[in-house]
Design brief:
Blueprint (H helix, E strand, L loop, with lengths): L1 E2 H7 L5 H9 L3 E3 L2 E2 L6 E2 L5 E3 L2 E2 L8 E6 L16 H4 L7 E2 L8 E7 L2 H8 L7 E8 L4 H9 L1 E3 L2 E3 L4 E7 L4 E8 L6 H8 L4 E9 L2 E2 L8 E3 L2 H8 L2
Parallel strand pairs: 9-15
Antiparallel strand pairs: 1-4, 2-3, 2-5, 5-6, 7-9, 7-17, 8-9, 10-14, 10-15, 11-12, 13-14, 15-16
Helix pairs in contact: 1-2
Length: 236
């Protein structure tokens, strides 16, 4: 027996938080009976419907790696009509992004209908590494470097920022290119790290997620993950 909202998320229908809202909004039924109580537990034999459509039927699991362009929303849909990462991928399955990248951030993001893997990768305790390449205004000072090595406190929580490398500096334009690897998944976290050091981020790209990289994928291009890659993600 598992909680209903977890089962809905694991079937790849939506995130666990959105599943909770669907339940409280009265849109979920179990064996034909409307369920609005969070924490309700169901078994593998129960029939779950959302808006009277059965969702817990076996469906092929699919896994995509996308090089997200700028000005694209990391969501399955957008109430403002903006383009989403799901719009880019031609798939017959109901997929959604694993985590998110900011509207103006580019780079690697995984999309899947495998809720179990998605929840595992996004859970903070699993500390999945993400590497970003940030073009920032200004040059990092000695104090900035010391602060990064010690870790940066954002909203009362310390972020391990010790894994960074200054890739290049442009003294004439007063900009720097910094590679940084973190396990955090909070919104705007990389921008907030550099903002705390008084450096605005001009351009931000995620180059790696765990062992995966964007390699030769151009902006807006995507590919299916290999079976070997999927198994390796599960083994993290």
């Amino acid at each position: 027996m598992e909680r209903l909202q977890k089962v809905i998320a694991n079937y790849g229908y939506t995130s666990r938080r959105n599943a909770e809202k669907l339940i409280t909004d009265g849109r979920v039924k179990v064996n034909g009976i409307k369920v609005t109580l969070l924490g309700t537990k169901v078994s593998g034999t129960d029939i779950i419907t959302i808006d009277d459509v059965v969702i817990n039927k076996e469906e092929k699991k699919v896994y995509y790696l996308l090089n997200k362009p700028r000005e694209v929303i990391c969501s399955a849909s957008d109430d403002k009509g903006r383009k989403t990462v799901v719009d880019i991928i031609n798939s017959e399955y109901r997929i959604y992004p694993v985590g998110r990248l900011d509207y103006d951030t580019t780079g690697l993001i995984i999309l899947t209908n495998d809720g179990e893997l998605a929840n595992y990768l996004m859970h903070p305790k699993n500390e999945v590494k993400k590497t970003y390449l940030a073009k920032i205004e200004g040059l990092l000072s000695k104090d900035d470097i010391v602060s990064l090595k010690k870790g940066i406190v954002i909203d009362g929580r310390k972020v391990d920022t010790s894994n960074f490398k200054i890739k290049s500096k442009n003294i004439e334009k007063n900009t720097s290119l910094v590679e940084i690897t973190i396990v955090e998944g909070r919104n705007h976290i990389v921008r907030n790290i550099f903002a705390s050091l008084h450096h605005d981020v001009i351009k931000l790209t995620r180059t790696h997620y765990a062992f995966l990289d964007i390699h030769n994928l151009k902006s807006g291009e995507y590919r299916l993950l290999t079976l070997k890659e999927i198994k390796r993600l599960y083994s993290i």
